[in-house]
Amino acid sequence: MSLHVVIGRGPAGAATARLLAAQGHRVRVVTTTGRSPEPGIEHVALDATDTERLTAAARGAAAIHHCAAPPYPRWASDWPPLASSVCAAAEATGAVLVMLGNLYGYGPVDRPMTEELPLAATGPKGRVRAAAWEQARTLHEQGRIRAVEVRASDFFGPGVGDGGHLAARVVPRLLRGKPVSTLGDPDAPHSWTYLPDVARTLVEVAGREEAWGRPWHVPTEPPRSARQMVDRLAAAAGTGPVAVRRLPSAALGIAALFSPLIRELKEVRYQFDGPFVVDSSAYETAFGVRATPLDEQLTHTLEWWRQRLAATG
Predict the structure, then answer these.
(1) Shortest CA distance to 165 belongs to which of 294, 9, 11, 14?
(2) What are the φ and ψ backbone dihedral angles of 240, each rounded to 5 degrees?
């Protein structure tokens, strides 16, 4: 089987590495700190902006799965050198570059998002994500690299912990039957992309030449509001309905004084104050793949959280 390099070991990078290893591929995970080997997975410690070392780590790889992201408050400064280094490594090695993207690049829109929408974001986070793909696409069109981007909405599912909007702030509380608070309007339609579907898509497009040269939206279930998702989770958990409250603006303002992450969320608050809907029909039609059924998503998510909470006491 082939060698695949995965840059980053956040939820998506870890899930992608495990899926590749399960399929029999050799997997090399690149992070700044490294870690002990796992079955079928080698870990390498290096800074991915070090193009020479990253290229050396990617020699012989069939694909580079770029799942890394700088710390949220440093996106504007740290994304450009990271994107340039990864593109340079793909060009030097000939590996297919599979980029994990998001929906920030579209900016606020008043319709379901498709891949044909222009990358019209004006905020720094949206523009830097759009620029990363535009750089890779240009190199692809010039014949210098082979690149594809996989875009997902907010992650949800096993492996999504502190950074998820339906994760650490929500699931442990509803498992105890306690009220939960959400960012923005809890009744606004919102797309939630199941993490295993993200990994599956990243792995699939790496080997499908017909997928290269364009972005694709990960197969995602129809939109549901945060309240609807909490209700479904609570019902699946057997805890009964729990109250769902919107975090007050005043509380967010106070939290922003102490949390750089909360301060940075101001740019993307529109994603939670109104409908935020992704259309993944292009990928579903092209490759005959659907999102994991919601009931299955809920079951596996709750199992993962119960195991995690039991392990941490």
Answers:
(1) 11
(2) 85, 170
Give me 298's structure tokens: 């809920």
Q: pLDDT tens-digit profile of 228-280? A: 999 999 999 999 899 999 877 766 666 656 666 667 678 888 999 999 999 99
144's tokens: 């210098």
HEC states along 140-179?
HHCCCCCEEEEECCEEECCCCCCCCCCCCCCHHHHHCCCC
Residue with tokens 């993207």: 101
Q: List alpha helices for the chain, DSSP H.
A: 11-22, 51-58, 75-93, 124-141, 171-175, 195-206, 226-237, 249-258, 260-264, 270-273, 281-287, 294-312
Report pTM.
Answer: 0.96
- Can you say how many angstroms the Cα of residue 310 is from the centroid of all Cα atoms in its chain? 26
- What does the angle CA 78 – CA 84 – CA 90 come to, to the nearest 5 degrees? 135
* Token pair for 193: 């992309």
Instruction: Please state, in angstroms and as integers, the Cα–Cα distance from residue 111 to each residue in 82, 274, 277, following that order.
Output: 31, 11, 7
The burial of 179, by beta-carbon neighbours within 10 Å (0-12 exposed, 13-18 middle, 19 or more buried), is given as: exposed
Bridge partners (DSSP) listed for residue 157: none
At residue 123, what is the residue type? Answer: G
